[in-house]
Amino acid sequence: MAKSGSEKNTKNKAKHTKLMNRKKNKLREEKENRKARLKELTAKMNAQKEN
């Protein structure tokens, strides 16, 4: 038999999902920034080698 009243745990689950998505987005952005920085560095080093 189902419980009557407010649903259990929906607020905590929503909050947890929100926080985990924020964490994943932060990690993804850091990874993209690192990749871009490395790309710039390699381009700069290749330009120095040619000169």
Automatic annotation (TrEMBL):
Residues 1-51 are annotated as: Disordered. Residues 11-26 have a biased composition (Basic residues). Residues 1-10, 27-51 have a biased composition (Basic and acidic residues). It comes from the Bacteria. This is Uncharacterized protein.
